[in-house]
Amino acid sequence: MKEILREEARQLGLSLSEKQLTQCERFSAALLEKNQVMNLTAITETEAVARLHFADCLALLTVEDFRGKRVIDVGCGAGFPGVPLKLGEPSIELTLLDSLQKRVRWLDEALRSLGVPATCVAARAEEYGHREEFDIAVSRAVARLNVLCELCLPFVKVGGCFVAMKAAAAEEELAEAKRAVSLLGGKAERVVTYRIGEAEHCAVVIRKVRPTPPAYPRRFSKIKQSPL
């Protein structure tokens, strides 16, 4: 895994130390071991884990400056993209947010065993406070962009950004989310395309230009029923 990840990072223009590569490898081993008794990932082959979990998430370090930033990963699941970002840029102050208590408990234990500091929170995004306290919010494969914006932009400080990991249909989702972005105090800044192996991936960067109105986020049932 180390050699695959070292090469993928090099192609992205990133350099990972032996310690960082070892931490990625150890987290991957912990993930795959726990996956035998808890549904954490459908990706279990070493090469795929290295590319589709770690390299894909580390690519965000080339999209935005994460150094010293306070970052929240919304709907983090098994820790992606937040954990690879923290391992690739240790100066990040990371909060991992997910609604499933047992997954968050495992993440907390796994990161403690690696000596990697992070705040692991079991809560729904629309119910977790801390409005406009983070420099960057990130999310991967959680929902359509118009829904994600309502869940993520309230966490971001004015001047900060929300970075959403998306597949090739990112431009289509961004067009659909135009009204939501504006209502929530955001401004679509750019869509960055990058390659992981043979696949094309996208990161949508939405800048926070105004405070999010207090009415948002709504209850999730309302968000799902009537997306902005």
List keywords for this structure.
9 helices; globular; 7 strands; 228 residues; alpha/beta
Short recap of the structure:
The chain has 228 residues and is an alpha/beta fold. 39% of the residues lie in helices and 24% in strands. The protein contains nine helices and seven strands.
Give the distance, in angstroms, between the N- and C-terminal Cα atoms: 41 Å
Low-pLDDT ranges: none
Structural category = alpha/beta
Strand sequence of the main sheet, in spatial order?
A: 3-2-1-4-5-7-6
Mean pLDDT over the full residue set:
94
Tell me the radius of gyration: 17 Å
Number of helices, where a helix is a run of at least 4 consecutive DSSP H or I residues: 9
Tell the overall outline: globular
Q: How many strands, which pairing sense, and closed or not: the largest β-sheet? A: 7 strands, mixed
Q: Helical residue percent?
A: 25-40%
Counting DSSP E segments of at least 2 residues, the number of strands comes to 7
Question: Percent of residues in beta strands?
Answer: 15-25%
Order of helices and strands: HHHEHEHEEHEHHEEH
Q: Give the oligomer, counting copies of the same chain as homo and different chains as hetero.
A: single chain
